[in-house]
Amino acid sequence: MSGSQRIAIVGGGVIGLSVAWRLARADQRVVVFDRTRAGGGAGRVAGGMVAPISEYGFEDDAFLELGADSLRQYPEHLLALSADSGIDIGFDGRGALAAAVHRDDVEAMRRVYDFRAHRGLPVEWLSGSEAREFEPLLSPRVTAGMWTADDCHIDTRKLLDALVAACRKRGVDIREDEPVTRVAVNGGRVLGVETAKGTEVTDSVVIAAGCRSADIAGIPESAIPPVRPVKGQILVLRGAPGCEFRHVIRAPEAYVVPKKDGRLLVGATQEEMGFDETPTAGPVMRLIEKAWEVLPSIYECPFESVEVGLRPGSRDHLPIIGPTAVSGLHFATGHFRHGILLSPVTAQAVCEGVTRGRYPASVKAFYPGRFSSAPARHGSEN
């Protein structure tokens, strides 16, 4: 497939905007529909970790490869994004330190370390005293640490603001407060999208609506993505004098991310609560407790807010990227906790799939068809 297409992106979060911007840079005519404000959603309240190694589980080899590819793309991605938006996006590559206090937590961390080291990944085991050389404010009760030098994090607010600005500069038509009510499909081919304001005729449609991707009418039942909301609460503190952390700190059930603007993000819960976005005391108390256990000085940090995001969790907690059985209908959703990390590689893959009719081999493991027997109609070859 070649030439300029009219493409509708359903969803104006970090994934939808990244895809839209990449397509616009490829001279496609793009319209983005968002049910509220573009650049909002779960990405805006995320910790912003770009950390494929620290997020690597015991059976997620394909995810590690995809995440590592996305991390490699990030420097060039941000340079182009800053050039288009005029916004300097902070990217912190000082690494991350996992810390453990109790014996069970140390043993669990040792299993993870051994697994990653066996894979040849750049991780380093530290004693408690060695960990405190990296991060002097660690509790004296910390008995072990795991250092991951390649971990990075980003200011997600600046990232999303830059994506909105860059999309507009590239001519993307952003329709805010205009939710898509139906995807128009006929004869196994997508025709466009419908909203309360009318029908938008397009050549292709990309569903990037996060946790609401399964709720859009018109998608054939066999192709509906198995995506649900997973509630995440994150605590925003302000750094206090003498409470200045150097690195991302990962405790067994919490993380602390220091931002250059003085915020300390303490996150994040993982709750199956449907679309409920109400901050609640119990989970926040638990976050504070687990973070304080390894970083006791946060006790003195001013409290700013509790923010809630709804992550898009798929059935296997891996992203859903690629073509569907409906010609012209593509998915870029289900990124769960990894939307910030995977936004560059997802945007690249969807752009290639939509404009060239061919997705890169790196995303084949994440095709929507893994949940269905229905084959993809096009764009599925590698």
List the helices and strands and how they pair.
Layout: E1 6-10, H1 14-25, E2 29-33, E3 49-50, H2 61-85, E4 91-92, E5 96-100, H3 103-118, E6 123-127, H4 128-134, E7 144-148, E8 152-154, H5 156-169, E9 173-175, E10 180-186, E11 189-195, E12 198-201, E13 204-207, E14 227-238, E15 248-251, E16 254-258, E17 263-267, H6 281-294, E18 303-314, E19 320-323, E20 329-333, H7 339-356
Parallel strand pairs: 1-2, 1-13, 2-9, 5-15, 13-20
Antiparallel strand pairs: 3-8, 4-8, 5-7, 6-7, 10-11, 11-12, 14-17, 14-18, 15-16, 16-17, 19-20
Give structural notes.
With 382 residues, this protein is an alpha+beta fold. Helix content is 28%, strand content 27%. It has seven helices and 20 strands. The strands form four sheets. Strands 6-7-5-15-16-17-14-18 form an eight-stranded mixed β-sheet, with helices on both faces. Strands 9-2-1-13-20-19 form a six-stranded mixed β-sheet, with helices on one face. Helix 1 links the parallel strand 1 and strand 2. The longest helix has 25 residues, at 61-85. 49% of the residues are buried. Mean pLDDT is 94; it is low at 377-382.
In short:
With about 375 residues, the chain is of the alpha+beta class.
Key words describing this protein structure:
382 residues; alpha+beta; eight-stranded mixed β-sheet; six-stranded mixed β-sheet; 7 helices; 20 strands; 27% strand
